[in-house]
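Tip: read the tokens left to right.
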């Protein structure tokens, strides 16, 4: 298993542990980091220089990709949404599940395969 894949699995395991421990904030952080790992791998595989180490920055960059399906742009949007003063997410979303969906898509697709 590659280093990035091990990191990705570790983040999802940490997210699950955080959720079991009723720490949804930590689960969201792990989900974001997992998405960042997948985005870095996606960009690298497609020959694109990774402009930032920040998962938050990479999610914002990904939202601008015209080839990203609208449902996944919404996932990236959810993953970058700020929590309220009560530390609640202002949208109904399971960020861990959504991050898994985004990661799966990124790791199965290539920019080159999608060009017309």
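Filled-in amino acids:
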């Amino acid at each position: 298993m590659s280093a990035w894949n091990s990191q990705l699995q570790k983040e999802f395991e940490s997210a699950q542990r955080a959720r079991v421990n009723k720490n949804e904030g930590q689960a969201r952080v792990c989900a974001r980091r997992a998405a960042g790992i997948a985005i870095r791998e996606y960009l690298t595989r497609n020959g694109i220089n990774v402009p930032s180490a920040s998962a938050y920055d990479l999610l914002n960059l990904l939202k601008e990709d015209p080839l990203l399906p609208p449902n996944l742009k919404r996932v990236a949007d959810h993953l970058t949404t700020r929590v309220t003063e009560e530390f609640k997410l202002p949208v109904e979303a399971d960020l861990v599940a959504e991050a898994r969906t985004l990661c799966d898509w990124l790791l199965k697709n290539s920019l080159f395969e999608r060009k017309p």
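The CA atoms of residues 25 and 86 lie 11 Å apart. The chain has one domain: 3-111.
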